[in-house]
Amino acid sequence: MKYIEQLLRKKDNKNSWHYLPFSLFFFGIMFLNALLIKYSEVSTNDAIKMSIEKYGKNINFLINILPMAVLLVFLLGWVRIFHQQSILSLTTARSQVDWKRVLHGFCIWSVITLVFIGIAIISSPKDYELTFNASAFFPFLFIALLLIPLQTSFEEFLMRGYLMQGIGLATKSRAVALCTTSIIFGLMHLANPEVEQLGYGIMIFYIGMGFFFGIMTLMDDGIELALGFHAANNIIGALLLTSNWTAFQTNSIFLDVSEQPTISYLETFIQIGIVLPLVLFYLGKKYKWNNWTGRLFGRIK
């Protein structure tokens, strides 16, 4: 139980107000963007389609994901310079980053994602179209492998790193840090076209994934596993299957062409209520996690 507590040794990080400038900057941008979308005459999905028509899918993807890569550099620099905190302590409580954990998390979620997508395609083949185009796919593959890990790493360093540590230090509560960051993570996706298409029920998945990443971070004293899982979720999804109403409309291998896409609450329950707890149980056995109550709900001393 050292991931948050390790910062108590650093005088600068005892002042919770130090976390406000970057947080206000980022969420201020998010809020302004949400207002623009709400009062715009063009929906998010229509705006994406217009951008794709103008630039093509690969350049549109690059335009949308590149800012996250820049924000990652900005965040790490802010932590290092302003907080005088090492990037290592933002990442883990271990003496060095455990890259095997990152790879392990990536492999586990890649397999699970492939299984779910495979089942969907086999069970409803008419809803999916093979759209593989080598000349478009391989340039996208290069962009995706280069930038998606930076995008997902920014979200993990911000949510499970920066904010979880900051809220934990401010409230002295692991539960408050876990719940707050998980809910904020879900709300960050409100402007996604998936919400517009499928309804607010999709927020169950986003918030559920936020709790999943948060729980493994607190139990494992680091974000290495979350980095791997999150990267796998976005990379495999973007490369293998997309649609004309998702945030990532890419040159993927398959395209969802279902006429009236809706959220499957059964599938969501299986993913969030069964698969994720089983994965956490497996990780707990593998990495010998103990004292679940204390690590997730205990006070920060």
TrEMBL record:
One of its GO terms (biological process) is CAAX-box protein maturation. InterPro entries: Rce1/LyrA-like_dom. GO terms for molecular function: endopeptidase activity; metallopeptidase activity. Residues 139-236 form the CAAX prenyl protease 2/Lysostaphin resistance protein A-like domain. Keywords: Hydrolase, Membrane, Metalloprotease, Protease, Transmembrane, Transmembrane helix. The chain crosses the membrane at residues 20-39, 59-81, 102-122, 134-154, 175-192, 198-218, 225-243, 263-283. PANTHER family: MEMBRANE-ASSOCIATED PROTEASE-RELATED, PROTEASE. This is CPBP family intramembrane metalloprotease. It comes from Myroides albus.
